[in-house]
Amino acid sequence: DSEDVAKIKKEIQDRYVSPSQDYFKLAQNRNVIVISMESLQDFVINMKIEGKEVTPFLNSLVEDEETFYFDQIYNQTGQGKTSDAEFILDNSLYGMPQGSAYVNKAQNTFQSTPGILKEYGYTSASFHGNYKTFWNRNEMYRSQGYDRFYDASYYDMNERNTKNYGLKDKPFFEESMPILQGLPEPFYAKFITLSNHFPFEMDEWDTNFPQANTNDKVVNQYFQSANYLDSALSKFFTGLKKSGLYDRSIIVLYGDHYGISENHNEAMAEIIGKEITPFESLKLQEVPVFIHIPGVKTGDYPQPIGGQLDIRPTLLHLLGVETNQYLGLGTDLLAKGHIELTPLRNGDFVSNDISMINQRYYDSKSGKMISYEEEFDQLTQAAREKLDLSDEILTKDLLRFYHPAGFTPINREDYQYVQDDE
Ligand code: GP9
Ligand code: MN
Question: Residues in domain Sulfatase N-terminal (predicted)?
């Protein structure tokens, strides 16, 4: 109703951070390729096992002059795991405090990236080597305006090419390429990788990368499996170059959530060479984020603290799409006014000076616990308000009352995902 609309408008106004003109439109009209990297945590970047880089391809992107690499981005997911990350990326809102927004809020109204880019002539598609009902994707995608959903039924799911949840990343990208080439341009294409999933076990024919050498099998296997993901990404980039799509695209890669839980702290302490204190646990919530724009030098760019919610405004501004009509709770990582206070889904937060973990405060630089001071309340409150607002939007389905100028409401009846032979 009108009170809600007034509230939404006020929140948008208060939270809006204008883009930096140095970066706005840098990738205008380009195809967007977003890659969700399953369970990839930032600590593996530039890490070596037995002298070998775990992620040589991603490490090369870190050094690449045409890449923004952000190494202080926290995952803001909850129980919805991969689906929460997807939701955050497409809406710049949090998932739910409990459960999954994809499962529970698929009937809500959203102003998601596929809908926003539709106004700019984009076709949207999601690619994933698991079946469409997993995480209720086939329902949520309708409310987010995904034109197409290429799920497991489009891929050769033979035994050699699959493990636990579905298709391995190499055949996934290989088989996706001809479909991607067939999409009308410009497109917004999301690729959700899968094989670097707990418990990270590999088929021996898929890897010759060494395992780590701890007493913990899951941790040992993680590096092999992350290395496989990295080499699948490398091959995909080669394919993009061959197809000619590469130069017309902007490519976003992000880790979806942690892979190694706190149950594996003992082995993780060996791996990173430090005791896993609560502060180190927080640092392990960092996920790598890359934005690669072929042919465009990124120069000396800001590398702030941020979260997954910040990726959408960053991307939209690079595409030259203004965000001041949309209720997103993140801010552009490249903007001067970017807000570094980054609340995690569990209520903890990170900021430039102070972090809060489980109601205790830490110095963000030294990692040392510090005693409470009244001035921290402002941050604590701002963090809480952001989470509460996001929850209110989802719970009350508030966006159904709000009609951004120049945005055609997404009508979920216009979308469904049925294979021709079903
Ligand atoms: C399943 C895949 C993995 O389709 O997205 O889900 P996760 O367990 O990481 O949420
Ligand atoms: Mn996942």
Answer: 30-321
Query: What is d(CA 256, CA 83) in angstroms, rounded to the nearest whole number?
Result: 9
Q: Is 139 in contact with 149 (CB distance < 8 Å)? A: no
pLDDT of residue 1: 83
Per-residue pLDDT, 420: 65
**pLDDT at 421 (0 to 100):** 59
Residue 356: the pLDDT is: 98
With CA atoms as reference, report the closest residue to 61 among 333, 245, 288, 305: 288
pLDDT confidence of residue 99: 98
Cβ 100 under 6 angstroms from ligand 1: no
Ligand nearest to the CA of 78: 1
Q: How far is CA 127 from CA 146, 147, 163, 190, 396, in A?
A: 11, 12, 17, 6, 30
Q: Under DSSP, is residue 356 helix (H, G, I), strand (E, B) or coil?
A: strand
Ligand closest to the CA atom of residue 255: 2
342 CA → ligand 1 middle, Å: 24
On whether 38 is known to bind a ligand per the annotation, the reply is yes
Does the Cβ of 81 fall within 6 Å of ligand 1? yes
Q: Which residues of the chain have pLDDT under 50?
A: none
- C-alpha of residue 210 to centroid of ligand 1, in Å: 25
